Amino acid sequence: MSLLPSSILAAVLLGGVSSGAPGDDHVERKRAEILSTVAELRSRSTDGLSAERAAERAKTLDRLEEYARRGVFPRNEAFPTRRMPSFFDTAGTRCAIANLMDETGADELVLRLAALDNHAFLSELTEEPILDDVEEWLVAHGLTLEEACYIQGPGFNDDDPPAPPETPTGQPRPGPSTGGPATPQGGPLTTTGGARRGPSTGGGRKRRASGPTTTWESWWNLNRDAFADVRARFHDGRAVTGPQASEHARARRPSDALIRDVVLPALDRLSSADDAIATTALMARARVAHEADVAGIRLAIEEYLRDPHAQYREFAVLALGVSGAPGAEGTLVDVVTDRSSGRRFLRERNRIPEKIRALAAIGLALCGGPDAADALLEVARDEKASRVDLRSASVVALGLLGRDPEIRARVLPELHRLLTREDGPTQVLAHVPLALGRMADPASVPSLLGRVARFQGRVEIRRSAALALGRFVDAVDADLIEGLIASARRDPDPLVRRFAVVSLGQLAGGEVPQELVARLSQFHVDGVTGFYKQQDDRPWHALAAGLFARSRPGARGDVIDALRAEVRRGGSSDLRAASVLALGIGDDRMAAVLIRQRLNDSGNPKVTGYAAEALGLLGDAAAEPRLLELVRDGGDPFVRHRAATALGQLASVESVSELVRLLRDTGNDGIRGALTRAVGEIGDVTAVEGLLAIAEDERQVDMTRARAVAALGLTAQESDASWIRLVKQGYNDSIATDSLRDLLGVF
After folding, report:
1. DSSP assignments along 1-27, one per residue
2. Which of 435, 297, 285, 295 lies closest to 362 in space, CA to CA?
3. CA distance 437 to 445
């Protein structure tokens, strides 16, 4: 896979060597990479620039081309075995960006940048006023911050770095002293806790990161089911650890007779209740229905489809898709495309409401085939009649349908066409990379990686592309790894960086050459320990390190050591929480004792809560009594929520009756939700009687009854995994439309 001639994405754009000799391979490679970058930047549209700014941009790119042709580049002296930038080296040789600033009269800005941190990427600048001054210089010369970050890149990772030569004039310009990496004033740069820091420029305040509030925790909440995979774990004979492991009973699913004679009739009765109970019962029936029952469930769903309450019909179109009832595909096609037959079916005189059509698109993806693909393609192309919500849902649905190889061949050309569009609704187009990621077609990688590695285009699309690339485990090569590493370290958008980080954690699960495994291992260790400067990204690095450790148990030693050290260290609670969870994700069973100690860390609920979940992921039966205490004790809601989640992940049959009792008695709906999931994931027959009693008890509040109904549906469903897992996994919640946001709350 190759995106740009003679380069790995033209990402390595400064540092390395300082030789102008034409025969020097390093210089020739460097020169070719910068010239390739110049050519691409010249090809980008300047429609948004004034004539004056466009002229300045052209001059700036001419200077950059001349810099490349001179072939005098700084040497990576401070970090000879790492790919690190330098604004200038001890000989005073400037990097590409610093040289441009010098030649346009901004040499003082170069000195200030080096004083702050000579080895920083521009994406790492957070202090005002220097960031404002950099952005002012960029605007004046017709460049964007993204383009400047693209020009600036890490240095070569030479095994035997050559000696630094002189500058063209024979005299070094002002720069760090030759006594080591230092500031222009001679004050040494310091290293603290693995993170390099330079002296402050004084008076600057930290600029807050802007953009969506997606966090590492929200990513985990969307993707956890793929890693917890509770039923698959206890059905495939995975061992439960700890001293009580031999006594750990296996869950028993409800029998077909119990479902047919008890569960389904109860759900039928509950379908006549009000609002939340009725709609939850409808979805539970769709989950539970066996082949012999689907005709009956279709009739029940049709009643809801004709109900005047929009909420009932929204759930009904989803339930129809989940049930896979005969004729469901044709009905949903009519609804999604707003055909007259669909309107008659829903008893709509005018257009079918957009949200019903959007949710019908997801339902169609769950049960459909070629006809469904044609209908969804029609809607995705319909720029006049279809709004953003519906078109976004259709793109998501196309990604789900495209898992079928025959349908994939029909869907891919349209998705690639949408990906290359420069116009159109951003929210719709940002769903396209996610759909391509679900299909994991290797031919999609160059176009997705081009969006990410070139720091080009709308940031929402870049974010989705960075996230989607983590699913291409069968297409891993040096270009993909280096391109994502470049974005993880250099992209000016925090969410692009963080999604690139988590994708790098997932990619180790494929057929990866050993040298790339070593590269990934070092990247994750550096990220966790704070070698990179974006400290707010470190919890994401911890999460990604856990994903790497899970995929590569034979190469995870240094990564696991780094995570354990962060758990022991009294640093940021966010980083410690992510690190302790990462040990669970990474299946580090030797760390179980260390993690159990965190269960008693009452002063830090986040760390305690994720320690509980880590023990659930590890299958640590020894932690079960303490986890039950945490759920019961009425303390911090977050800790109780995560402890309940952990008991579900343990598939603890012994805890089922207690979890059902807590579901009945707790007044906190967030904890009720966690208990619902826990009971449903365990899926043991002993839960049925207690859940039915709660669901049919009219003295209980409606939300408690609805949660019991949901748990009943999860317990009795035939599939190991909930259908919603397919929608959530790998999703970018920062671009969710109203319909998709509601969908993410389903379990």
Report:
1. --SSTTSSTT---S-S-----TT-HHH
2. 435
3. 9
Residues whose CB is less than 8 angstroms from the CB of residue 557 and which lie 6 or more positions away in sequence, other chains included: none
> Among residues 428, 420, 357, which one has the least CA distance to residue 399?
428
Tokens of 161: 């770095």
Q: How far is CA 218 from CA 17, 44, 215, 721, 733, in A?
A: 43, 35, 5, 20, 8
Spatial distance between the Cα atoms of 197 and 117, rounded to a whole number of angstroms:
6
Complete DSSP assignment for 571-605: --HHHHHHHHHHHHHTT-GGGHHHHHHHTT-TT-H
How far apart CA 340 and CA 352 sit, in angstroms, is 10
Contacts of 179 (CB under 8 A, 6+ apart): none
- Is the previous residue joined to 129 through a cis bond, with omega within 30 degrees of 0? yes
Q: Are the C-beta atoms of residues 688 and 715 closer than 8 Å to each other?
A: yes
Mean pLDDT estimate for the chain: 84
Residue 726's closest CA among 473, 442, 415, 363? 363
Residue 189: the pLDDT is 28
Q: What Å distances lie between residue 727 and 326, 383, 574, CA to CA?
A: 23, 24, 27
**Summary count for the chain: helices (H), strands (E):** 39, 4
Give this prediction's pTM: 0.86
Q: Under a CB-based contact definition with an 8 Å cutoff, are residues 527 and 544 in contact?
A: yes
Q: How confident is the model at residue 647 (pLDDT cuts 50, 70, 90)?
A: very high
Tell me whether strands 195-197 and 190-192 are parallel, antiparallel or unpaired.
antiparallel
Q: Per-residue pLDDT for 174 more than 70?
A: no
- Please state, in angstroms and rounded to a whole number, the distance separating the CA atoms of residues 16 and 84: 9
Residue 218 has pLDDT above 50, yes or no: yes
Instruction: Collapse the DSSP code of 192 into the 3-class scheme (helix H, G, I; strand E, B; otherwise coil) and give the result.
Output: strand
Q: Whose CA is closest to 639, among 670, 661, 664?
A: 670
pLDDT band at 24 (very low <50, low <70, confident <90, very high): low
